[in-house]
């Protein structure tokens, strides 16, 4: 038996008690929030993700790579052999620097490009700088997202609506357009959908529609770019313990019981989604395009 097999045989992990369960302490951080200040601090795979060269030599850009699901993807990509550029907001520098250190500890090149994705000119510069510093680009993860809970549609100002749309819909549009000149056949684009695309919550009127839009852009673009050899897929998480949820994404009431309605009675941790991103980027997943991969703890697909 090789080491890998014996390790697996040793360690069955029970998904029910693998990670923290509600009730969680009430906590609020101003947007965008820091993973490092959450209680408990999310598990992004820092201590657990083991790579096996699946993305050797690949070059990835991950928006929102400082924290949460994007950080889990960044750690996994680096440990699989990819060089990784991350984008984030300037307020998130401390989270971002932790990720930069983790990528470098994996022996890969790390590129940090802070900036606000609501500006078209910044999105273009981001892609240009990432490709320039990485020496190319063949994995693009449009992961950054804005979510703000509002009890009523009447509470959503035009400015707030615009922030959600610009971050979640316009930014991927601008970034993909800028990235196309770099993406060669074999490249992979990954978008972040959500259970909200299929079963929207009453308090996420604006956010939910951006996730439905993401599902649709993934399916449209997969058909458009398939003939060019570029794959486009999406990931649809359920409740995952991240900074977005403690910085206005959920009401305090929902946060305390966050994830209690899943089959395991707990939210997911970012680390539990990392391998999906690897699979979608890897050459071995070459027939998967236009697909939405769910990871929601028991519900969430149509
Ligand atoms: P997160 O807060 O850790 O990550 C979101 C990131 O978006 C932030 O780190 C920030 O860098 C970035 N961002 C937001 N506005 C930005 C802007 N204007 N300019 C640049 N960057 C900006 O939270 P997360 O939960 O890991 O979110 C990642 C993705 O997963 C999002 O698209 C989110 O909608 C999606 N998602 C999350 C959940 C969940 O339960 N956490 C469920 C379904 C989908
Ligand atoms: Mg963050």
Keywords:
binds nicotinamide-adenine-dinucleotide, binds magnesium ion, seven-stranded parallel beta sheet, 302 residues, Rossmann fold, alpha/beta
Task: Explain what you see.
The chain is α/β, with parallel strands linked by helices and 302 residues long. It has a single domain, classed as NAD(P)-binding Rossmann-like Domain (Rossmann fold, 3-Layer(aba) Sandwich). The protein contains 9 helices and 7 strands, in the order H-E-H-E-H-E-H-E-H-E-H-E-H-H-H-E. The chain has helices at 3-10, 68-79, 93-105, 120-134, 158-179, 205-225, 243-249, 252-256, 274-281; strands spanning 59-63, 83-88, 110-114, 139-142, 188-192, 231-237, 292-295. Strands 3-2-1-4-5-6-7 form a 7-stranded parallel β-sheet, with helices on both faces. Helix 6 links the parallel strand 5 (188-192) and strand 6. The model has no long low-confidence stretch (mean pLDDT 96). Bound molecules: nicotinamide-adenine-dinucleotide (NAD) and magnesium ion (MG).
Quick description:
By secondary structure, the chain is α/β, with parallel strands linked by helices. The chain has helices at 3-10, 68-79, 93-105, 120-134, 158-179, 205-225, 243-249, 252-256, 274-281, and strands spanning 59-63, 83-88, 110-114, 139-142, 188-192, 231-237, 292-295. The protein has a single domain, classed as Rossmann fold.
